[in-house]
Specification:
Blueprint: H1 2-33, H2 35-38, H3 46-69, E1 95-101, E2 107-113, E3 119-128, E4 134-142, E5 153-159, E6 167-169, E7 176-182, E8 193-199, H4 211-242, H5 253-257, E9 264-272, E10 277-283, E11 290-295, E12 311-313, E13 325-330, E14 338-340, E15 346-354, E16 363-368
Parallel strand pairs: 5-6, 13-14
Antiparallel strand pairs: 1-7, 2-5, 2-8, 3-4, 3-7, 9-15, 10-13, 10-16, 11-12, 11-15
Length: about 375
């Protein structure tokens, strides 16, 4: 009897030591993962630096959701990698993003109801942000190419093998599925409902969490933080050097490599203003599914769209008599199409043309206000 108690106590002691080591290693790796943000020369103001620390906490939340809480590709569930308080890579304020962990070894069923959201798309990606900064597309499907029933319900099979009917391709290295719902007026439009499940052979329920699974998941989180923050810090530095107060990133290669939507033509830039300056941005509007414009901080997070008017789109902006649009980016309130800098003096910016027949470059002029 005493031997059994001793063995049980020893096992418990070893488990406690092991979990203490797991946590200590995670904390050390987490500290190292944030150094590129904490030491970034681009962070020149106290606001930049404070938002940098918050950015790391946000990436931590996303990383834990992605790699620990929703990491089982056999039992996928949707989570949000970008939303109002956690943001990556010039997240779109007009979007409702849904993400799920997937695997090329599985087959999945996506099902739901269409709603009235203007743009709805599905994509599978090979997420290598923590490895080489890429997120290669392995399959794309637009809701316009999906057969719906009379009630707007749909079902899509996601697999490596081609399927009849609604099919979203997978590849052997597919690891993430992204659903993008793009709104032009969220107060009037009904979101789609979307669910996912793996089909075919699998266990009835997910296995209990083991220390090996935990260790592997926690090792991926700091890698995700370091890789993701490095990519978009490099982008911000590039835009500041080459696209200051301009929207002219014509070469789309970098954006498609990082997982951009193939329907969208991205015009990134860097904005930098004194208190009495403004950017006046004017563009003709081509035949398109939609367009939008937003400003971000230097970490490429959209500014706080819950409390500030930091973006606009084809459903919200007031057009000029000739059908073009003029936006004004500044700290001071403006009467028409005002984009509020929300206490910031610089950051990145982005104009999206979605499903456009052509892609005019907006004219950007620095003016005094």
């Amino acid at each position: 009897m005493a031997g059994n108690i001793w063995r049980r106590d020893m096992t418990q002691s070893l488990q406690e030591t092991n979990t203490q080591d797991i946590w200590a290693k995670f904390c050390r790796e987490l500290e190292a993962a944030g150094q590129n943000v904490l030491s970034a020369p681009l962070a020149q103001t106290s606001l930049d630096k404070a938002e940098g620390v918050r950015y790391l906490t946000r990436l931590l939340r996303i990383g834990l959701d992605m790699h620990l809480e929703n990491a089982d590709a056999a039992f996928p569930s949707f989570y949000q990698a970008s939303h109002a308080t956690a943001k990556i890579g010039a997240d779109n304020p007009d979007n409702f993003y849904q993400n799920a962990t997937i695997s090329g070894t599985q087959t999945y069923r996506i099902y739901g109801t269409r709603g009235t959201v203007p743009i709805l798309s599905f994509a599978t990606k090979a997420n290598r942000y923590a490895i080489d900064g890429s997120m290669a597309s392995t399959g794309e499907l637009d809701i316009r190419d999906v057969s719906l029933d009379a009630d707007g319900k749909f079902e899509i099979i996601v697999s490596c093998e081609k399927q009849d009917g609604n099919w979203l391709p997978l590849a052997e290295d597919s690891s993430i599925l992204i659903v993008r719902q793009t709104f032009f007026d969220k107060s009037q439009e009904v979101p789609a409902t979307v669910s996912i499940e793996a089909i075919g052979k699998r266990a009835a329920t997910p296995p209990p969490l083991g220390t090996d699974t935990l260790t592997s998941a926690l090792s991926r989180v700091p890698a995700f933080i370091g890789g993701t923050s490095s990519i978009f810090l490099q982008w911000a530095e590039l835009f500041r050097a080459e696209n200051c107060n301009a929207l002219n990133t014509i070469d789309q290669t970098m954006f498609s490599k990082a997982g951009g939507d193939p329907m969208i033509y991205y015009l990134h830039g860097w904005w930098e203003l004194d208190p009495n300056q403004a950017l006046q941005i004017t563009s003709p509007i081509p035949d398109c599914e939609g367009w939008n414009f937003q400003i971000n901080n230097m970490w490429m997070e959209s500014l706080d769209y819950r409390h500030h008017n930091i973006h606009t789109n084809n459903g919200l902006a007031e057009l000029n008599p000739d059908g073009s649009v003029t936006l004004t980016v500044c700290a001071k309130p403006h009467t028409k199409n005002w984009i509020d800098t929300a206490g910031h003096i610089h950051g990145t910016m982005l104009w999206r043309w979605t499903g456009a027949a052509d892609h005019p470059l907006p004219q950007v002029e620095l003016i005094h206000v």
